Amino acid sequence: MTDDGWDAELVESTLRHAVPQLAYLIPDFHNPTGLLMPDDTRARVLRAAHRCGTWLVVDETLTDLALDVPAPLPCAAHAAPGASAQVITVGSMSKSHWGGLRVGWLRAPSRLVTELAAQRVAHDLGGPVVDQLLALYFLEGARASVPERVARLRERRDALTGALAAHLPQWTWRQPPGGLSLWVDLGAPVAAALAERALDYGVRIEGGASFAADPGVFEQRLRLPFTAAPDVLREAVRRLAAALADDRPVPSAAHRPRWIV
Ligand SMILES: Cc1ncc(COP(=O)(O)O)c(C=O)c1O
């Protein structure tokens, strides 16, 4: 993953050189960039992982949140015959349905599922029953509830981009075809200072560096989720613009009163 897209060659060479036992991918509406991995890249990554004997954990938590495109096929469907044995697909209902519903799922070769289920019993005995009943209730009505959530997210994304265009026209972003957030380019490496200052204005956001493996990377990026109601998003953008214009020195995290955070 680079700042503005998928780098299949880099993935292939990294797999070839590091030969990891396991690699983690979010190909659908990637958090935080919102990018959707093209089909040919999926096939290349699956092929490269298969060649190196690397297991792929493919996170499809955001797959159903397809705002402008049809929901993508499962990533494992792009594997060559026989190669799909190396893929573990995981997901969660917390994004497609409701943030408090921490019920997840996984799809993997049946022997592995049996082994993982046995491991789980040793750790926490199983998922909470009421949450699972709620998950079942949502899944039975899935055809109605997911499109409703997608329509609401589209409206919220429009509210956020409209407010940004009005109050922070110097910021740029690529419209994400799905998912939950905008990956905004601030034009200068000020994300950490802005995120810190924004706390004074009652807005908590994540600077891009929180999502980078290497220090200093993505310091000019901000992840702005569009999960809140349109009015809340518009007000948040007004406050972000005020925080950006505020040139008082930013207090270090150590000096910030605990109750604000
Ligand atoms: C792609 C992706 N997978 C998994 C999760 C975590 O899901 P949960 O809240 O169910 O632990 C997140 C949360 O942001 C996410 O963006």
List the helices and strands and how they pair.
Blueprint: H1 8-18, E1 22-25, H2 39-52, E2 55-59, E3 87-92, H3 93-96, E4 104-107, H4 110-124, H5 129-140, H6 142-167, E5 181-185, H7 191-198, E6 206-207, E7 221-225, H8 230-245
Helix pairs in contact: 1-2, 6-8
Proper CATH architecture of the largest domain: 3-Layer(aba) Sandwich
What do we call the CATH topology of the largest domain? Aspartate Aminotransferase, domain 2
Number of strands: 7
Number of domains as seen in the coordinates:
2
Distance between the termini: 31 Å
Say which CATH homologous superfamily of the largest domain is assigned.
Answer: Type I PLP-dependent aspartate aminotransferase-like (Major domain)
The largest β sheet comes out as: 4 strands, mixed
User: Helical region count?
Assistant: 8
CATH class of the largest domain: Alpha Beta
Strand content is 5-15%
Question: How do the strands of the widest beta sheet line up side by side?
Answer: 1-2-3-4
Shape: globular
- Name the hetero compounds present: pyridoxal-5'-phosphate
The low-pLDDT segments are none
Q: Which structural class do the helices and strands define?
A: alpha/beta
Helix content: 40-55%
Output mean pLDDT: 91
**Rg of Cα set:** 20 Å
Sketch the topology as an H/E string, one letter per element. HEHEEHEHHHEHEEH
